[in-house]
Structures are given as C-alpha cells and as structure tokens.
Amino acid sequence: MITVTPKKDQIEQEWFVVDATDQVLGRLSTKVATILRGKHKPIYTPHLDTGDFVIVINAEKIHVTGSKDEQKLYDQYSGYPSGLTQVPYRRMLQRKPEEIIRRAVKGMLPKSALGRKLLDKLKIYAGPEHKHDAQQPKPLEI
Questions:
Q1: Is residue 1 a part of any domain in this protein?
Q2: What pLDDT score was predicted for residue 3?
Q3: What is the DSSP string of 101-132?
Q4: Whether 99 contacts 60, CB under 8 Å
Q5: What CATH number does the domain containing 47 carry?
Q6: Distance linking the first and last C-alpha atoms of the chain
Q7: Which residues of the chain have pLDDT under 50?
Q8: Model confidence, pTM
Q9: Residues 6 or more apart from 130 whose CB is under 8 A from it?
Q10: Which of 15, 49, 104, 112 could form an SS bridge with 29, CB 3.0 to 4.6 Å?
C-alpha cells in the first residue's frame, strides 16, 4: 500500500460561513479548527495546508457554558516586570468579540508555522456583515 501525498494543484480550498449566534464557544471552535486543518477531507495530510477558509459572523452573540462568563480571564503579557494584564470574558465580549473566537481556535491549531498560516484563513466579524461575498462562501451548519 502506497501513501499518497496531495500535490499543491490537487488541493481545492473552499469558503464557508458560520453564524455564531447562540453557539457555544468551545463547540464552535472545534468545528472551525477541524475545517481550517482540513480533517474533514479524505486528502488530509498533517504537514500540509489542506483546509478551507472559514468566515465567522455574529461573534458578539457567542455563549459560554456554566459560570465561565464570570470566571474566565484572558491574559496578555507585555514582557516587562508586572506587565500582566487580565481581561474578564464580559469586558472582552464588549470590546473585542472577534478576539474571543480567534484565541479559542488558535489554541486548537498546531503551534508552528503551519498553525499560523491556518489562522490567517479564519475571518471573524462581530456583526452579520462580511466583505467576502466575491468568494461565494457556503453556509456551514454547526
């Protein structure tokens, strides 16, 4: 049996649009990470970018389960002594709802150059409008 590695011209990348309204953050993020990596395709190869592009709309309407909306903190470190800043989930949801989904998906991707390349294929918008109509994205039900 021979293992076949797909060539660059054999990899077809599609665009999907996901509505985050009333979705649970972790469950949405796992599905998005799977699509970005290409694990839903039969030609999936761990060291190649075989995944698709994903557009997430209505990021401001995402939900978390349990009491995470009161307890979850997002850390940011400046690199200087006492430079740690912690932002609660509710404040992050008000100021930068796109960042919540981006960080959740980033944690589910490889920590390498491939992971950074995959994260570039994720487009997140707080409201219902996006600027990728020319790519004719297909709706993705989660």
A1: no
A2: 82
A3: HHHHHHTTS-SSHHHHHHHTTEEE-SSS--S-
A4: no
A5: 3.90.1180.10
A6: 35
A7: none
A8: 0.93
A9: 17, 55, 57, 123
A10: 104
